[in-house]
Each structure stands twice: as C-alpha cells, then as structure tokens.
Amino acid sequence: MMRSPRFYAVACRRPDGEVVLHEEPVGATLLGRLAWLNRPFLRGTLAIVDALALGMKALAFAANVQAAAEAEASEAARRAVGKQSSRGAAADVAIGMTLVLSLALGVLLFVALPTALTQIVQGAVGASSSFSRNALDGGIRIAIFVLYVLAITQMGNIRRVFQYHGAEHKAINAFEAGDELNLETALSHSRIHPRCGTSFVVIVLIATIVVHSIFPRPENAAVRIALHLALVPLVAGSAYELIRLAGRARSKAFLTALLAPGLWSQRLTTREPTPDQVEVALAALNNVVERERTGAVSAV
User: Fold this and answer.
1) Which terminus has fewer CB within 10 Å in the chain: N or C?
2) Would you place residue 194 in the very low, low, confident or very high pLDDT band (cuts 50, 70, 90)?
3) CA 241 from chain center: how many Å?
4) Cβ(274)–Cβ(282) under 8 Å?
5) Which residues pair with 283 in a beta bridge?
C-alpha cells in the first residue's frame, strides 16, 4: 500500500500472477474528514488513524481479490459472482473482528502487562521514584515489543508480509533518491527507511518513558492504565514530529543517532523482498505518483 498527500493505492498479486490495483482519494475516506488533525503534535494521532483506516481497507481489498480468485478457479463464472460477494462480506467481518481483538491485545500486552510487571518487580530492583518506575515500565514495554516481533517472525505468512514491507521501503527509497521507478533501481536500495511505522512505534515506546516521567505515577493500576491511554495523543504527536524532522535531515548525525533504535528494529520487521514483490510495491507507488501529477483518479 502506498499513500501520497492526496491519494492512496493498494496493489496485490492474484494467484495467476496478475497485479490488481485499487486507488482512492484520501479525502474520500475517514482521513479526509479528520484533516483538522493535520497540525504539529496532532499529526501523530492522525498517523495512527491513518494506519488503522487505510490498513483495514487494504486488507479488505486484498482478501476480496484472493477470495474472487479462489471462486473463479473453483466455479463457473455465474456462480463465482455470488460466492465472491459472500466471501468478501465474510472477509470484511473477519478483518473487523481481527482489528478489535488486535486493539484489545495491544492494550493488554503493551499497557496492562508492563504496568503489572513493574508493580511486581519494582521493589526487587529498587525502583522507588516515579521516574525510575516509569523507566522500568517503559523498558519492560520495549522488551515485550521485541519479543512479540521475534515470535511472530516464526510464522511463514508474517515473514512474507515483512518481505512486502521491505519492498515498499525499497520503492520509496528509490523515489526519494530521484531514481527511475523500475525494478532494477528499486532492488538496489535499502529496505530500511527512517519514516517507517516500526520506527514510529519504537520512538513512541521511548517517548512514553519521557512523557510519563513528567507526571506522577498513580498507585491504582486502573488509573495508571487510563493515564497511559489518555496520553497516547501527546506521546504519538511528539514521536511523529521527531520522525518527520529526521526524514528531512537524514544527514544530521544527532537525529540519526536518536532514531537508531527505530532503524535497528526494522531489521526485524522487514526482510529482503523478491523481485516480484518489489514489482507490486512499484505498481502501487507509480499509481499514486501519477495520480498526484495528474490530480485524477482512474476507474479501477
């Protein structure tokens, strides 16, 4: 999936090898109605909504394309149309349920569990001040994130997703270097990019320690969890502005060092893609580049 200022495009490959595209103006989505959030230190919240909203739409499109291909392979064309619709609806429901469960799991793993573990071990490690306990809480949260990513990389499908993640980065790096957007040039570029969502997550985890050190640490677990959730916009906003700055000043040694943990983490969440995966990434990128140039949306 590629997103430009005004458009986004999703490309996926059918089992028969054909690359299928879907494009849409960003203004026609939920993000367009939240344009008022596109302000400094509010943009981080918009980035989270962006990832969730467009990610859901991309997953739904890809699932429906695969469902249609399966239907076409197993049924006559007339019956395939009806089955595609039912499978597409089922895929939408499944993706919606997955999102809800993922959000619940995220709160459990990255908010509730670190808070509980900090409460258990703070005495043993001598964390008596609010700052030291918040630092301990943040360290545990980062460790859980790394272990979680390492665990899911053992799944074959996730490794393939990480390859496509690397393909997206190669295509974007080629574009930002001013190179021609073709397979040869894209393959020569790095799979690491400073404005990656993984870097955003890691910087958010680090920023959480800094932001929460400003506030007292409530003793009540439910209040602490509520405070963590309430401060998400502030934390995300701070992290997002830092990543934007780093993306514009890649040669600055200080910013590079500051973002190093996020860049390192991409070694876990990206893999070297195959040429056919890079072709899919280029298809989506070329689409949004052309749409930005012409200002028009083609019929897909």
Assistant:
1) C
2) confident
3) 16
4) no
5) none
Dihedral, CA of residue 206, residue 210, residue 216 and residue 219, to nearest 10: 10
| Tens digits of residue pLDDT in 166-187 | 999 999 999 999 999 999 999 9
**Are the C-beta atoms of 287 and 3 separated by less than 8 Å?**
no
Residues 6+ apart with CB under 8 A from 66: 12, 14, 15
162: helix, strand or coil: helix
Q: CA 298, CA 300: separation in Å to the nearest integer?
A: 6
Helices (H), 75-220: 77-107, 113-121, 130-152, 156-176, 183-187, 197-214
Say which residue the tokens 């393909």 belong to. Answer: 167
Tally of residues, the chain: 300
- Sign of the CA dihedral with 186 first, then 191, 195, and 200 last: positive
Q: Evaluate if residue 162 carries a pLDDT over 90.
A: yes
How far apart are alpha carbons 85 and 64 in whole angstroms? 8
By C-alpha distance, which of 129, 194, 167 is closest to 279?
167
Residues 6+ apart with CB under 8 A from 82: none
Interatomic CA distance for residues 234 and 242, integer angstroms: 13
Question: Do 25 and 293 meet the contact criterion of CB atoms below 8 Å apart?
Answer: no
pTM: 0.78
Q: Which of 162, 227, 140, 240 is nearest to 200 (CA)?
A: 240
Angle, alpha carbons 35-60-75 (nearest 5°): 155
Q: Which residues contact 33 (CB under 8 A, 6 or more apart)?
A: none
pLDDT, average across residues 14-39: 76
- The answer to whether the beta carbons of residues 86 and 64 sit under 8 Å apart is no
